[in-house]
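User: Hey, quick favor. My workstation is busy. Could you predict this chain's structure for me?
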Amino acid sequence: MTVICRLSILLLACAFIGGCGVFGGKDDELPPKELTDFKATLDVRKAWSAKLGKGSELLRINLMPAGDGKRVYAASIDGNVSAYEPESGKLLWRSKLGISLSAGPGTGRGLVIVAGADGEIVALRSETGNEAWRSKVLGESLSVPLVKDGEVIVYTIDGRLHSLSSTDGSENWVVEQPLPPLTLRGASTPQIVGNRVIAGFDNGRLVAVSLAEGVTEWEAMLSPPSGRSDLERLADVDGSIAAVGQDIYAAGYQGRVASLAVESGQILWAREISTSAGIAADWNNVYIVADGGELIALLRSNGSDVWRTDALLRRQPTTPVPFNTAVVVGDLEGYLHFFSNADGGPVARMRAGNALLSGSPVVIGTRLFVQSEDGSLYAFEVAQPRRPGNSKDTAAEKR
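Assistant: No problem, here it is.
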């Protein structure tokens, strides 16, 4: 079945169900849970903000900021790619590509790479923003391009994982998985762990591919399709995949959250939790936003519950991101919610404009960056308490 036919079926299904996000039944008829007041214990402040370009109008694309240690990069749907000085937010360069963008940017090897809605892959020089090369793949990409060891990895919504040369954009290899007749709009951004690319597909499979040769090393059924109708059998692995050491953490829609061994794909533990938002992890916990909006922390070693909070029910929360001593989630009204990574209690709340935050917040250096649906970029930081000291120390700090 063609991509156009599958998309038409998806849009028709969405019209009957009442939303293209999470097919939650009665929960979708209820309003977003109201926010409650609390005493903030984490001093979060907005460092700067910038306008990138046109807003993405709820098209469920995957434009989100990226950094390389020197600059912060971000792109807008109308083809603007911009580089900023991380501390001050000063615009360093802006390139206007003249195409509609759907994902990125990704960075590496001195390149900034974005994906176009019609399959264009464009590489810019990170120092200047000058175009290095432009290539084209079959299918729209909704996952951030990855760069490593001379390879640019691109996943497209037609079920293909592409490797392009970082030198000129020529194709090295393609790995393909069969697609079900009905899928959610979205795509999982692959992870590169060692010399393997780990990718989730819309048929519920997690696949490991060798970075150099494009050979499939193992497959694991993360989210087995079940039910009689195509809607009941939705099993997309659409959200972000996390990796800590040699362990992988991934989740599927109407399926499981699981920990897998990167060498073999063996499932180390699994929990029956459905999510389309993806998964994040730190050294202690794994963090998931379940389909209804419940934020859940699981112990990374065995998947047991650490804490849960229902503060964001039906608020369309983003993928959670560990930041400082908190876990951060954005929502449909532009709020960033900071929860303690120890017990899940609220520790701060900030607003990044009034637009929905559809892309996941991103930690770059010591700051948190988030892009909103209206085409704006925001930088936040945690204020550091002043160190007690004598007048000589204070004078030295001022210099």
